[in-house]
Amino acid sequence: MLRSMGLIAALLLAGCWGEPRTLVTELAGKTMGTTWSVKIAHPENRPVTDALQAQVAALLVEVNNQMSTWQSDSEVSAFNALAAPASMEVSRPFASITAKALDLARISGGQFDPTIGPVVGLWGFGPPKTENRLPTDAEIDAARAQVGYAAIAVDGQRLSKTLDRRLDLSAIAKGHGVDVVADHLISIGYLNHLVEIGGEMRAGGDKLDLGPWRVAIEKPIADDRAVQQIIAVRNIGIATSGDYRNYREIDGEKYHHAMDPSTGRPVTHSLGSVTVLHPSSAMADGWATTLLVLGQQRGMALATEHGLAAYFITRGDGLKASYTPAFAAYLEGVE
Hints:
Layout: E1 7-10, E2 22-31, E3 34-43, H1 52-67, H2 75-81, E4 86-89, H3 92-107, H4 117-122, H5 137-144, E5 152-155, E6 158-161, H6 170-187, E7 193-197, E8 200-204, E9 213-218, E10 227-233, E11 236-242, E12 247-250, E13 253-256, E14 259-260, E15 265-266, E16 271-278, H7 281-294, H8 296-305, E17 309-316, E18 318-323, E19 331-332
Antiparallel strand pairs: 1-9, 2-3, 3-7, 4-6, 5-6, 7-8, 8-11, 9-10, 10-19, 11-16, 12-13, 14-15, 16-17, 17-18
Helix pairs in contact: 1-6, 3-7, 6-7, 7-8
Subcellular location: Cell inner membrane
EC number: 2.7.1.180
Enzyme class: transferase
């Protein structure tokens, strides 16, 4: 999902006499139409290798080569170009993420649908570029006719479709990119890290003697960075989906990127944002989108049923926060 997720890393630096100081080294770059950052906590006498910047960039290029609908030569674009019925061999990561997206679709009763691309594009939030106008009912019906996750199947590394469908993994791909980078850091010994792509995060370990990683959940207010809640995180993925960053304004009305597959239109309920914590940033990403589409009441019920740590902010008479039992352990500070 191309959006700002409302998460800000709060980093504190300190030192201890007689011991190597703990430093937090930050790397940054651009990917997936947004930015990425990596923060690594390490002793002063064990600096971060200069090669890491290029390694992270290369890993994210590979994720784009697999899952970017904006790249005509990506794996997902090649699959989308096939006329049904058809199948093709794909990379293991692409097959795995598609399978996870299909699982979320089934769990949510289709409210999360990785074939929603035609609807998303029609409303101007994905390829192809569209005019800044409201789509007609006929256009919405035509786009909805191209949506339906049940026509997609994954068997090992073979991806198939029985009807013409276009996969759009943008609601889970950034989280997957975070996981790829975090797993690489662990594999080369950087256990204490905070990885972020466009607001999706994964925290590994902590900041050594500086304490846990602390992340701020923003209030769902456009053009503002006000903090709603601080959470302390360790070895967990974090993702927020909201309606307050990625939106279009047409004839004075705002229409945001979260689409209801059952209507082919942006959702219109009072839920401003939802934050999900999950060991996998990809799954946190996908779940956050799912719960935003469902709304607070249905989203809370589904998140609680599945034991998710989820935090909801709704609008009404001001902003109101609510959260699942599993989220309580992460709260820090006063709402």
